[in-house]
Amino acid sequence: MRCPYCSGPDSRVVDSRAGEENKVIRRRRECFVCRKRFSTYERLEPLPLMVVKTNGTREPFDAAKLRGGLIKACDKRPISIDTIEKIVAEVEYAISNYVMEVPSKIIGEMALEKLEKLDPVSYLRFASVYKGFNSIDDFMAVASHLQSRVQAKIRSGNNEGAALSEGARLRRGERDQSRGRHVNTEGQEPAPVFTGPSVEKADPS
Which three-class secondary structure state does DSSP give residue 143? Predict the structure, then answer.
């Protein structure tokens, strides 16, 4: 390490301390030439996560690029910027489990999965860029697939709602029957209690 005072090429470490939750090491050095002391800092430089594109090329993952694509897809749609930021954060956290490289297909599918639950129009807009639609047939194929999935979810929800309604109806009927039995017994004379024939005791006198 070259001395910042005299540009001497050599120095020795006289003290080392960790800082910033052990992410940085501060080293106190002394120059062999001018004997002045100075500090240097060592930080771990994280390796960038590379995105492998469909054509085989690689580029560093850029959260801003993903955010920009989502903002364009959600333009004039009922999706807030906070929701977009949440999608970016969730995707970025999910791909952090990958080591060195992650296929671009994984990132795109993660984003589409989030958009499908929010807004079909935004989903189709993002899919048109991510999947690289070349014709209206490509667009119609994805739109048809999305419509089938949405209708299947609606049918599933209706079936679950019908089952819940039927269960509630049965429980309500049971409560009504119980309440009816209770009402029918009100206002009636109490049933006589049979105590058996009376027996007179003999007079001992």
Answer: helix
